[in-house]
Design goal:
This protein is of the alpha/beta class and 490 residues long. It has 14 helices and 17 strands. α1 links the parallel β1 and β2. α1 packs across α2, α1 crosses α12 and α9 crosses α10. The protein is globular, with a radius of gyration of 24 Å. The structure holds 6-O-phosphono-beta-D-glucopyranose (BG6).
Length: 490
């Protein structure tokens, strides 16, 4: 099994509390952690062991999808945790850490398998990686792995520089770049859906598909992340990573063998086939927006520039919609519309596949029918729906659309972080972004960034949209130009 030491940088942070501890807890409950497993939390704060464990406990009680009902089990879980104060820039602190890691390895008979999870600002990645190497923490007789959170760079050049720094310490197969959208069960399910359903396999191509729409809308605003978000915007925060990863997972051709390597090769090939925009063309295919004040669930909310920490003159994007094409044999000439935004009407991540209407000409009525749709709901609720047409029972000349819907039992669905941490522990990189994918996605996004930043030519205007709406009017225009419209969620 995965007998290992889980070394967590950023143990006092928000992500650890909300996602990482609950994920470890659920893996523990599901017996997916080895009995020989230790967690070492690291942070700058002076915490005692008991401070740390009560934080972990509180995080589980607040955020775990399963309540911690069995006290004995919860205590046994908490017993896996140790805390070590560490300043990432101080080499002596790593020596102390190594001592603790070894002590626990001996106590729990854990082989030298170490996973380093960097839930910290990316500026610290290089310092930490270097210190892991120089302290001897990374010299193991078993395996070592590095798990890192986004953002992986802020453009093509910085991503390359970061990769170079990390690769002097960790080999590519030891680096697990987290894109938590790849951990969502419905994303992990896409390949299986296609493999096991020949009816989908047969239709998943340009011959039958009119367009594909990928939406990740959120109702939350910038929250307490102004300093980061105002520099990143929706393009870096969601689009370059999550949205393009969802696109590749959907559009890749099924590999003959399903090894992680094959999957990454197929994803790479989708990214390499994306039609590249020139900076001057971006304005025709990309809409950027920013929310103004409005109402979410009936409650008034502030506009982006009134949010704490955001300047009144900020022209950062909180919404992006793009039309793009994958110039390969299967998808050529099928437009893909992708949008993501904050403070929109609903929280929903979904893929909608709109089918062509080849039978129209045989229709007895000459009335247009509603297109067939396949809707894959990725979150917050998971499901699959088909929109089909049936004859109106009371009118021979009319059809009406019906939806056939499957909804997953949400109590039973693991969270993205559970899947990803487990995948990393067993050494399966399938649902992580390989370096060449990250590089290609930055390469594709680069002219968009440049067009956004070219204030002198005002290449890409910033469209305002009201909080609680579907985003700027201009994003509807993008589809209307092609005779389509955004399909709403169910
Ligand atoms: C994160 C972004 O990666 O994804 C956030 O930084 C965003 O801004 C979040 O809110 C959305 O994730 P999910 O799983 O809630 O769709």
């Amino acid at each position: 099994m995965n007998a290992a030491t889980f070394v967590l940088f950023g143990a006092t942070g928000d992500l650890a509390q909300r996602k990482i501890y609950p994920a470890l807890f659920n893996l523990y409950i599901d017996r997916k952690l080895s009995p020989s497993f230790s967690v070492i939390g690291l942070g700058r704060t002076e915490w005692t062991e008991s401070d740390f464990r009560s934080r972990v406990e509180q995080s589980i009680r607040t955020f775990s999808r399963r309540p911690a009902v069995n006290e004995a089990e919860l205590n046994a879980f908490l017993d896996l945790f140790r805390y070590c104060r560490l300043n990432v820039a101080v080499p002596e602190d790593y020596e102390q850490l190594l001592e603790l890691v070894r002590k626990r390895e001996q106590q729990l008979s854990i082989p030298e398998n170490r996973i380093f999870y960097l839930s910290v600002a990316p500026e610290l990645f290089e310092t930490i990686a270097r210190n892991i190497q120089e302290s001897g923490l990374g010299s193991v007789s078993g395996w070592k792995r590095l798990l890192i959170e986004k953002p992986f760079g802020r453009d093509l050049q910085s991503a390359r520089a970061l990769n170079e720094q990390l690769s002097s310490v960790f080999a590519e197969e030891e680096v697990f770049r987290i894109d938590h959208y790849l951990g969502k069960p419905m994303i992990q399910n896409l390949q299986m859906l296609e493999y096991t359903n020949p009816i989908l396999q047969a239709l998943w191509k340009n011959q039958y598909v009119a367009n594909v729409q990928i939406t990740a809308s959120e109702t939350v605003g910038v929250e307490e992340r102004a300093a980061y978000y105002d520099k990143a915007g929706a393009i870096r925060d969601m689009f370059q990573n999550h949205m393009l990863q969802v696109l590749t997972m959907f559009a890749m051709q099924l590999p003959r063998h399903s090894t992680a390597e094959d999957v990454a090769d197929k994803k790479r090939s989708v990214l390499a086939s994306l039609r590249q925009f020139h900076k001057e063309e971006v304005i025709h295919h990309v809409i950027r927006g920013q929310y103004t004040s409005g109402y979410i669930d009936g409650k008034p909310v502030a506009g982006y520039t009134e949010e704490p920490g955001i300047g009144a003159a900020s022209n950062n994007d909180t919404f992006i919609a793009a039309r793009l094409w994958i110039d390969n044999y299967f998808w050529s000439e099928v437009p893909f519309y992708i949008r993501t935004g904050k403070r929109m009407a609903e929280k929903s991540t979904r893929i909608v596949i709109e089918f062509k209407d080849p039978l129209d000409k045989y229709s007895r009525t000459n009335e247009p029918t509603t297109p067939n749709l396949l809707i894959i709901d990725i979150g917050p609720n998971e499901g699959i729906s088909f929109q089909l047409n049936v004859k109106d029972a009371n009118n021979d000349l009319k059809t009406e659309p019906i939806r056939v819907h499957y909804a997953a039992d949400q109590d039973d669905v693991p969270e993205a972080y559970e899947n990803l941490i487990h995948n990393a522990l067993v050494g399966d990189p399938t649902f992580f972004a390989r370096w060449d994918e990250v590089e290609l996605s930055w390469k594709w996004v680069q002219p968009i960034l440049e067009a956004f930043e070219d204030k002198a030519n005002n290449f890409v205007p910033l469209h305002l949209y009201e909080a609680g709406s579907d985003g700027p009017e201009a994003s509807r225009g993008l589809l209307e130009e092609d005779g389509f419209h955004w399909w709403p969620a169910l």
